[in-house]
Every structure is written in C-alpha cells, then in structure tokens.
Amino acid sequence: MRGLLIILVFFASLGLSLFLRFQAFDEWYGQGAGDLESGEGRGFVSLSPGLTETLFALGAREEVVGVTRFCLYPPETANCLSVGGLLDFNYEALAALNPRLIFMTPFHREHRAQLDHLGLSYEIVPQDTLDDIRASFLTLAQRCGRDPEGKRLVDTLDKNIATVQAVLQGRENRRVLLVTGRNSYSDRFEEVYAVSTGSFLSDLLLVAGGENCVSGSVAEYPVLSLEGMLHLDPDIIMELVAEEETASSPDSMTAWRELQILRAVREEAVHILGAPYFTIPGPRVSLVLEAFVRKLHPDLKDFVL
C-alpha cells in the first residue's frame, strides 16, 4: 500500500510539473511566436552565434524568438527559447515557434529537406569571409526592415579596416600560423587545428599586416602535426581560445615552449589570445582586428579602434 502511495504521489508531482512547464511554454509562445492555426509566423530564429549577434546589433532583439544554446551574446539572448545546438537543433521546437523566418548558415544545408517538410521558411546567410559578413549585415537588415542599421554596421566595419590600413601602410607582412585548438593543454603537442585562407579570420589577419601560411580556397580548419608546423615554420603563431583565463595562464604556454625547433617559439613570437568572440563572425570582428594588430606589431600594443 505504501509503495502504491509513493507511485501515486510521484506521478501527481510529475503531472503538476509538466502542467506548469507546458503552461509557461504556451505563454512564452503566445508572446513570441506566430498564430499556429492561421499559419502566420512572427519573429526570427537564428541558428548561428554570428547571425544572432548581428540581429541584436541591428536592434531586432524583440523579434528574435529562438536561438541555439551556443548563442550567448549579448546576454539578452537568455530571454530567447533555445532550439538546440548548432547542428542538432530541435525540429519540434522550431515547428512550435512557427517563426516568420529561420536564419542559418551554409553548414545547415542538410537540414533544408526537413524544414521544407515542416513548412518552415528559412534563409541561408553565409558569414565565412569578411565580404560575407558585410553582406550579412545588409541581408539581415533588409529582412528585418532595418536597412539604415545594416548600412551603419557596414560603414563602421569599413571605417575600422581603413583606419588599420592607414596605420600599417608601408609595413611588411609577416607569416602567421593561426591556431584555434589543440589536442589538450598538456606539456606535449600532438596536433593543432589551424585556420586556412578563405576565412574571415584570415581576411582580418591580412588587414592587420599578417600573411596566413596555411592556404585554402574555402574556410577550412586543417589539422597540423608537429612536422606540419615545422614545414610551415611561421614567423608568428597566434592561438585563439575562448576563455581569457586560459590565455593568461602560464600553463597554456608550456607546450609551446617545448617546441624550440620552431622559429616563432625561439623568437618568443607565440601569442595566446583569449575571448569568446575570436571565432564568431559578426559585428565584433573589429575587436578581433584590433587584437591582431596589437600582437603583430609590438610598437602598437596599445592600439585601439
């Protein structure tokens, strides 16, 4: 009898919990989503941190109803419903939101058939290169009815690029290896993940006075062994990490110091830069450009755009 009572209490509690969650869920959708019966969608869903940041920078924060769990900036994204990860998003959540438009990147192409099946409208907005990012500002602005704000973002980016080019005029470019990850933060290296040309990070590097020593026709992140790094033997190595604490930790340089066979290590030209925005295309790329300039040109260590 006691066991039966426990089971009944458990299911009663579970039922109440589910009821409250669905009630909150329904209220949230009632505020941010479209009318499911009429089929009229409202608001936007963004499946990329870069696209999300762009929408918020355009002033469309009230219209963004869904984002991925990796869309963490600005902090107001916490008010949006999470529809899953970058590539493993929840179709049921998307269908329930019934947004006016879903913004996604070329990496989401394989999901088009399922979105078509659900009758959801979407648009692919690339942000792979610096030119893509410029175009994305204007595209998203047009879709949101915020053309002046989109032009403002483009003008600000172009002004910052022109400022850097003027400051660095006449300087010789140095060969740089851009790294976005490694096997582990241990005292030994096995491989690193590099950034190739054809990417927005490589484009920013070129503006900042660097020459990417890893070639690629499209944005790629090839794996390099120690032998591969030695073959490239760059003048400068810049490793990008998401946390400032990791970049400033003395332990983060331990593995690099063991690689005295590399010129950049011997000349103390290895830099670890830490911030969550380094690998996110969008309005904050000017901060990346600023950081690149400071590290590539020691006499400009206080450079600010």
Structure description:
With 305 residues, the chain is α/β, with parallel strands linked by helices. It has 2 domains: 40-167, Nitrogenase molybdenum iron protein domain (Rossmann fold, 3-Layer(aba) Sandwich); 170-300, 3-Layer(aba) Sandwich (Rossmann fold). The chain has helices spanning 2-32, 49-57, 91-97, 112-117, 130-144, 147-167, 200-207, 226-232, 244-248, 254-257, 263-266, 285-296; strands at 44-46, 64-67, 81-82, 101-104, 122-124, 174-182, 191-194, 210-212, 223-225, 236-241, 270-274. The strands form 2 sheets. Strands 6, 7, 8, 9, 10 and 11 form a 6-stranded mixed beta sheet that branches. It has a 5-stranded parallel beta sheet with strand order 3-2-1-4-5, sandwiched between helices. Strand 1, helix 2 (49-57) and strand 2 form a beta-alpha-beta unit. The termini are far apart.
Précis, in short:
With 305 residues, the protein is of the alpha/beta class. Helix content is 42%, strand content 15%. The strands form 2 sheets. Strands 6, 7, 8, 9, 10 and 11 form a 6-stranded mixed sheet that branches.
